Sequence to fold (732 residues):
Amino acid sequence: MRRGFGERLGLPGALGPLPLAPLATEYHALTEAQAAAGLRYAGEALTDPQEAADGSAFVSVLDGVALCGPRRRRLLDGPALDALADARPAHAPVLRLLAAIRRRDPALLRRVLLYQLLPLLRQRATGLGLDPAEVRVLAKALPTVPVLDDRQRRAAESLARLWSARRLRGCDRAVAAVGPEALAADPWLAAFEARLRRRLGRCDRMLAEAAAGTDPTGAEARYLRVLAVTADDDEAVRGLIRLGTAPDGGDSGLTARPAAGGAVTLSWPDRPGVRWRVLRTGSGLDRPDPVRGAGAGGSAVDADPPVGLRVRYAAFPVRDGQPTGAPLVSRALLVAPAVEDVAVEDGPARLTVRWRLPRTASGVVVTLTGPRAAAGHHTLDRAEEHVFTGLEPGSYEVRLTARHPSPAGGTVDAPEVAGSGTVHAWPRPLTGLTAEPGPEGGVRFAGHGGEGAEVRLVVWPEGAAPAPGSELRAADLPAPLPWARYGDPGFTTPDGAFAGLVGAATVLGERALAGPAVRLDVPGPVGAPRAVREPGGRVRLFFDWPSGAGTVRAAWDGGDLTASRSRYVREGLRLPLGPGPARVTLQPLAPDERPGAAAVPVRRAPVTVEVPAEAVVRYRLLTRRRGLGRRAVPYAVEISAHGHDPAAPLPAFVLVHRGGDRASARPRHAEDGTELLRVDGTELAAAPLHTLPLPPDPDLSRPPYALRAFLLGDGAGAVRLDEPALTTLVVR
Fold:
């Protein structure tokens, strides 16, 4: 390091004062760029890390910013910094910002680097790539430099940015935060403070003239000149707002209205080509606050106004961010959002009031008035529902007032919101429901409660049955069961099978209350029953299996039998009734009739099947021999009928013949051969025994032949045909 550099810079002593503020508008961008690059201070980007580590290259900052080697010292100007940025892409953003600062002022670059170095040197940081001689000089000078705390450093770093934005009042507050000791230690900072005082002094004089004058036009011009110098002068803004306020305190072109969610909507006459800036001001606010979202157009929304304060809004016409005239000012508005979405629902002797409370409210006052309603306030915390009970039928009015905390420590009431509701007469609830199965079939319903109301029996969808006592609308109930009536003395059943939840509901006008429910299981009816006689006095029953039935019980005089569906399909249903007439009842049973079953099993009335006595028609062939040793030849048929109802006709008796080659098999039906003989059922039933000759043709003396008899006509299935031995019917 060359001797005497401090004297050549005009600094007192060997080093001179060190900077306590960067005073560079690019400083914040520089700190963000160096943090992204992982640098402790911006000067680390000027050297290669390896060269800085072995001492072959270092940075000099006291006598201008230079890059030094063993035999060479090169000052870094703007082009040199740009060249380094091209050569080191990782640090390019930092280097280009340093180049921009260097072009503005060579001494400013040195000031920024020294400002960043001082805290690091106080922490005894190493490996900074700095000239060792300069490190020793700076270390000796550090005890004489004032130490800034975090608040002072933030204030010092904000000065350049506030100045560039013409926020001189903010600069004044920042200078005050930095403190007089720092101002005395840094000539540049002291010069900045002196320049700031001169400008603010001129502004203060113009503000005083505007406030003391009586000419509104002159006052407006002075306020605008002040804002042209210091854009954040709140006194000038308030002065313009006072000039724009209507004499009666009402709107002067700007309308402010409360909106949903606690917001405030603003509207004013727009002017073509004019941009707007909207501010909010009030007695409880430190300074006018900007309302975001305002710009071109004549509307804006203040989404987050201060609750509990009386505020005004002012829309300033601006050009390049600077007001060009007095604003349009709204009337004073108390920010106290009211409750929203008030809904009143009635129930049995009660009203339920629901609302949506603003997020800023601390409570709500609810008042109910109506027939014999207790007047007074019901003060609630942050509730959004209240139930008034014990009310008589009639019309009621509800008023709700939201309460908000005031910045002064009290509460502020929002505008009152009213709602209305009517308490209607509701039915009495049904407290019990029973389903009693009948001894022979069917079910009847009974219960307790529901006096003075209609009781409907309905079927609820599975899983959708409301709890007993639930309040319903009669129009929303399922259709009533057509086959069941509550309180009827008789037992009823549905036309088909039924399995489900039967619930009761008491209905009065348009309103209903859900009652208890009971699950039923009713099988369907037995369909198309008929009986067919079989040999040995047995009877086979045929019917359509009833849907929903677990079993079918067949009962007759002297016995009963229960069959499952699988057994009925596999084996049929055969009953030992004997040859006489009988009456059989078929009754479907529910799948589970055990005590404690989940569903109440309901029996269906049995179906009766009348089984006549066993009717038998017997026949035999009468034969004779034409000579000794000759085969016996049939010549007549003897037919007898037994056990039939004399009043009912018997089926016709038909004897069929097959001969020749076809005689190898008996006839399969009445048309499968030649008819030899036919006796009508009426003639057959007229006498117990008939002997009828066979026709001469065909000649039965010439075998082979086969004979077979059939019963044809109504009731043929109920009459058994008893045939003779097969050897007499088939002759070969």
Confidence is low (pLDDT under 50) at residues 1-14. The longest helix spans residues 187-212. The first strand starts at residue 58 and ends at 60. Residues 17 and 144 are 9 Å apart (CA to CA).
